[in-house]
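Notes continue from the previous slide.

Worked example: a multi-chain complex. Inputs as given:
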Amino acid sequence: MLAYTFKRLLLAVAIVSLAMFLLFCMIYTIPGDPAAVALGPRATDEMREALRIKMGLDQPIWVQFWNFFTGAWTGDLGNEVLSDRPVLDVVLEQLPYTLALIAGGISWSVALGIPLGCWAAVSRGSVADRIVGVISVAVIAVPSFVIAIYALLIFAVTLRWLPAIGAGEPGDLSDQLVHLILPSLAVGLGWVGYIARMVRASMLEVLEASHIRTARAFGLPHRMITYRYALTIAILPTITLLGVGIGQMLSSAVFAEIVFARPGVGKLVYDAILTRNFPVVTGAVLVTTVLFVLLNLLADLLVGALDPRVRSSF
Amino acid sequence: MTTLAISGLNVWFSTEDGPLHALKDVEFDVPERSIVGIVGESGCGKSTLINAILGLLADNGSIEGGSIQFEGAQDLVILGPKEMQDLRGPRISTVFQDPMGALNPVLTVGRQMVNIQYRDGGSTAEKRARAEEMLSLVRIPDAKAALDRYPHQFSGGMKQRIAIAMALMMKPALLIADEPTTALDATLEVATIELLKDLQEEIGCSVLFISHHLGVIAELCDEVVVMYAGEVVERGSVRQIFNDPRHPYTVRLLECDPARQTSRSRNLPTIPGEIPDLRQRPAGCVFAPRCHRVHAGCDQAQSLVEIGEGHAARCNLALEPQTAEATA
């Protein structure tokens, strides 16, 4: 397990390095002079040239890449254009909000998706199964920003049950949680459908397995067979799916943060693009990439912890 | 006392192409403390029979008539799901064919063996001790440590022995063994058969042993039931079936056993033709289309003809000894 974790961490470093390279290529090919953008239209040529040298833009491309690469690995993502604060600080300040949003989205999708999928599989072919199937497809098909806007209209504007915007008073946990309900629903609702379908499919497969027949032949109680013998195996592919799905949730989080005017990495990137604050965009994308790779790794390790067959093959 | 007495058992499945008569008028007994073998080619209804006895028929299957008397007291056909569940495990236990998949892959062997004892009172420690005792009985080395291991950490032969330990842990009255040695190699097969026989004598249970391996049946069983296309075509003692088969299908089946080949030949004998479509059962003898002794009377329904003590065959010619002309 330890060797496997180490191997996966090495792989994660390689993935992040590759992502850095791609990101660098993208920045490099974006038209326009970063120094000119940073200084604005009224700057003189001398000022631009001075900033170009300060930013290292006069160096050959591979030196620039090396500086970017080593800087990024040591936590130096450059400074923000407007306030000259380190980009990493700016991004890390916003990260907890986005993490909370994603954790909320996963909670929604797991808390609703697993029981629904399990229920559909156990009552296969029944009306309940069909209803779950239709709901699953429906929530998958609706984009998260549409869910966000309607959730806002229905629960915040019309019914006034939940707050419409913001992340709640800092330090007041219950207020923050109340503010989290609608945005995280918008992020997680589509995943309820994915997970319900995934759990249903793998549950049906596991229930056909011969070890389930053995369990039945020993007269084990129905509940024990369903939850202890079948579901523990059936949720394994779901965890892997969620690990990959975090990427999509991160992009849904951008919309949710904009619609609900919540602070967060998504909102930060959105604002940074509007103000052409490119170091922040780069830094936020990089931090998000690392987050995605780490959460993916976590999902795989979790599967290993739950499945002894995977664990021993490490 | 008879452990299991099956009479007039009929099982139907509803399929998209119409009803399928999977078991027809199945009739045989499993006497107390005896081992009864069921033999027949794939698709003869062996698995359906097991599922019918266990009350685990698929949703589209149903028992239409007949009775399965268990220990002379309960008819498994009319028993409710709850009562059936109470019998499975403590009274009727099963060892399945596939040792690789028969155990839950994410639970330790000990956990699974403790779970099987969920009906009994007592602490987990006591249940683990019982499980350990059973594992030593089936000669799993270091039984105590084995409890905390997962099924994939054992070899196929060990897994099958663990499955046998699980099945006999509750000291059932009837053990159903569904081709328990088919997936094992020859040396393991012999060892497993011997183990099964020893344990059967020790516990004093009856065994319903399903196999298509005639050598194993002859070695292990007291009585044999030959099934074909969901019917019992012949039943009798091992000696009767192997030395004096009366149904043409039994005769051909014995001829097909590679162990019985005496002369060198390029081709192993086979029975030409296939099992008929059970959605359209022939009105007469179900084996007639493949039979080498087919005659005018075969288009009539056949009944089990008593030949001797406990020996019966479903054939008009059952009272005439079968001759070697079959090979012609």
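Summary box: Chain A has a mean pLDDT of 85. The radius of gyration of chain A is 24 Å.
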